[in-house]
Amino acid sequence: FNRACYGTNPADDDGASFVHNHDALKRLGIPMGAYQFYLFGQDGAAQAKHFLEAADGRYGTLFPVVDVEEESAAQGSGGTIEERIANLAAYSAAAEKGLGCKPIIYTNSDSWSTYFGDTDGFSGHRLWVASWGSPGKIALPGGFKSAQLQQYADDGCIDGFDGNVDLDCLLGPTTIADLTR
Fold first, then answer.
1. Which end of the chain is more exposed for a tag (fewer CB within 10 A), N or C?
2. Is residue 127 within 8 Å of 149, Cβ to Cβ?
């Protein structure tokens, strides 16, 4: 997955790096999906609109992702739990209208409980859960019955990449085909 943008500020977009990564992955035949880092304190529908503009058709073959976690409160908490739920629902609706599919939600149990009260209002979305430790052993956020992906570390090493990379796995019986648009 390749980040396209962070909230609605074009100055925070990944721009040339996003385009380069998308095009290289496409050329190599590696499945890719675009994602946006979501901010609670910004309008959800406006963030989805910005994501569609920033990705500029480079959405990849995998379902898009909205990254919702503690740092999403960097520019404000977004009000009450009910207001955050409504705002994320507006994001999801606008993203689905523009892309023809619901975005995958990336989150963790603590963030989902704290900021969304373990709502089940997004249980129809695919879930990518950040749950550190052993692959396949997850702390499932409340309101979800299952997860399809797990990030289990952020300190992996891959030949050809400088610095640490995230380590993720599919959670059975999920396959890459299940995540393809």
1. C
2. yes
